[in-house]
From TrEMBL:
HAMAP family: CobD_CbiB. It is a multi-pass membrane protein. InterPro entries: Cobalamin_biosynth_CobD/CbiB. GO terms for biological process: cobalamin biosynthetic process. The gene is cobD. This is Cobalamin biosynthesis protein CobD. Converts cobyric acid to cobinamide by the addition of aminopropanol on the F carboxylic group.
């Protein structure tokens, strides 16, 4: 009961306030992880695994100190959720594109993803935004709630540690190809179920943005596995089907170029589709919060 109340209270707090401008707990974790990286770094998978293990166990241990009390669980839930901030970034991108300010949209895109924005036009910026909103709906909302429902405080903070480490070191660059391997694989494992749950919740919520659950499920089943990521494709394919758009194409990350397969059968996204994607993302996050609390309540009654 206390964990369920904490999850609902934390999700409500995130919906009302979003992330703080300064002093975010996840940023503090990132600074601590960066300091540890400087001490442990080596071009070795073993060193990277030790680094990731220490960071995740430390965060999970901090979550265990909550002992399932409502207040600490609510605070942890608020700290790890990012659905409101994700929606704000999506709205900012939409406003810039609708105003015809491509330069402002390019400057804003790094808040959402690591794609190189310099060569992107308005249509490609809209596609990048919809894809990022879809993928991050799992990372920022569904996945932390899933692990919170399953493991309480340790699940909430442990998941966010895994996801943050993947963003920090889980790259295919020469520096992190080995050292970041464990963090990247841990993130794949931690998001496997939540990404598929995100896809299914997107199917259920499709009518809220004028979409068809049948079409969203069809595209999810057909295209979800085509994406090079084992998890992001499920989210993006479901969003493509629900919104009636086509995602995928050429993505540039610095000096690396990736050719993503097409997801969906519709037209390319437009700025107004960002509004619909944000609305869909918020609906999926709300559904995930209700589901997480319900699962935790059922678990408590079973015990």
């Amino acid at each position: 009961m206390t964990i369920a109340r904490g999850l609902v209270a934390g999700a409500t707090l995130d919906a009302l306030t979003g992330d703080p401008r300064r002093g975010h707990p996840v940023a503090a974790f990132g600074r601590a992880a960066a300091a540890l990286e400087r001490r442990l770094y080596g071009d070795s998978k073993v060193r990277g695994a030790v680094f990731a293990g220490l960071c995740v166990l430390g965060a999970a241990g901090l979550g265990a100190a909550s002992r399932g009390r409502t207040g600490p669980v609510a605070a942890a839930t608020w700290a790890v959720l990012g659905g409101t901030s994700l929606a704000r970034e999506g709205r900012a991108m939409r406003a810039a594109l609708e105003a015809g300010d491509v330069e402002a949209a390019r400057a804003r895109l790094p808040h959402l993803c690591g794609r190189d924005p310099d060569s992107l036009d308005a249509k490609e910026l809209a596609r990048a935004t919809v894809e990022s909103v879809a993928e991050n709906t799992s990372d920022a909302a569904v996945a932390p709630l899933f692990w919170g429902a399953l493991l309480g405080g340790p699940g909430l903070l442990g998941y966010r540690a895994v996801n943050t480490l993947d963003a920090m070191v889980g790259h295919r660059s020469p520096r992190y190809a080995n050292f970041g391997w464990a963090a990247a694989r841990a993130d794949d494992v931690a998001n496997w179920v939540p990404a598929r749950l995100t896809g299914l919740l997107t199917v259920v919520c499709a009518p809220l943005v004028g979409g068809s659950p049948r079409e969203a499920y069809r595209v999810l089943r057909r295209d979800g596995a085509a994406h090079p990521s084992p998890n992001a494709g499920r989210c993006e394919a479901a969003f493509a089907g629900a919104l009636g758009v086509r995602l995928g194409g050429v993505n540039v990350y610095g000096d690396r170029v990736e050719h993503r397969p097409a997801l969906g059968d519709g037209r390319p996204p437009e700025p107004d589709d960002i509004r619909r994607a944000v609305r869909l993302s918020r609906a999926v996050g709300l559904a995930a919060a209700g589901l997480a609390a319900g699962v935790r309540l059922a678990f408590g009654r079973g015990r």
